[in-house]
Specification:
The chain is mainly alpha-helical and 100 residues long. The chain contains four helices and two strands.
């Protein structure tokens, strides 16, 4: 089965939390500068999802590509071919009785 695309909010949250703590100005001030609300920062820091525009705004503020946390889908393994059974008459044994 194919694996769907995912986004690593936990990794983004760890980096964001460290940056917010280093900044020291408070989450509300940083949120206003980023263009999101403080509750959005809290959600990300706790590994929860937020909308794509908010992720992009946070990543821009962190000076990171939003793709750094994107895990693309993986295609399913190709199905193995199974040998097909023959269910018809054999032309080699036609007319011969099965003697047991």
């Amino acid at each position: 089965m194919a694996r769907l695309a995912t986004y690593d909010y936990r990794a983004l949250g760890r980096l964001l939390r460290a940056r917010l703590e280093d900044d020291g100005r408070g989450w509300r001030v940083c949120a206003a500068e980023i263009g999101v609300c403080a509750s959005d920062l809290s959600r990300i820091c706790n590994g929860q999802s937020v909308s794509a525009p908010k992720v992009i705004a946070v990543c821009d503020w962190l000076k990171l590509s939003f793709r750094a946390f994107y895990d693309p889908p993986q295609a399913a393994e190709p199905e193995r071919e199974t040998p097909q059974m023959f269910h018809g008459k054999s032309t080699e044994t036609e007319g011969q009785a099965d003697v047991g």
